[in-house]
Amino acid sequence: MKFVAAVAALLAAGSAQAVVSFTSIAFDVAPGAGETVVLDFESATPPAGYTITGANFGYYTGTTGGIAAAPAQDDTQYLAVLGGGSATITLPTAIKSFSLYIGSIDAYNSITFNGTGGYTQTLTGADLTATPNGDQGAAATNRRYFFDFGGDRVTSITLSSEANSFEVDNLATAVVPEPATWAMFILGFGLVGSAVRRRRGINTVAA
């Protein structure tokens, strides 16, 4: 089953309407086209350029009764935010989309996206699935979510939970080229075009 939803919220007075759309697929399927897993939470030290800060969160493997439950079919280390805690993942570059495997979704779990130009949007477990009951094995509560921010760009993601726990794994992104990178592409294409035109303008005379 594929679950599709779109959520929109009007932010502070005078601000533009922020929209986040998402789809989801049961269990930890492969990331989307063009995406690469950038955070697998196998180490408490994230890759260069990423930071994870907050309080009352940790890294677990398997299920620890009453504390954290491994996302369904996930036997690797994952991130769990415990009751009253939060974990903010700061990204090295602004992104327009990403995907994340979320396990045993509860109504009291929430994910907040923060981005450029004051963009912010929060989704709760009840926004993510129609049955946010924390089931540790059901397809409805253990899913890879594919988030898209349209014309907005996100620079950090905050995971919060009012009670134990909010478990996630294998965050994947597709990097948005920086403006300077696009400029280099355009310049490169221009130089190639100029070279082709020059070659066409050269007349070769045989002796």
TrEMBL record:
Taking every annotated instance into account, which residue ranges of this chain make up the domain Ice-binding protein C-terminal?
176-200
Is Signal among this UniProt entry's keywords?
yes
Where is the secretion signal located? 1-18
User: What UniProt keywords are attached to this protein's entry?
Assistant: Signal
Q: What is this protein called?
A: PEP-CTERM sorting domain-containing protein
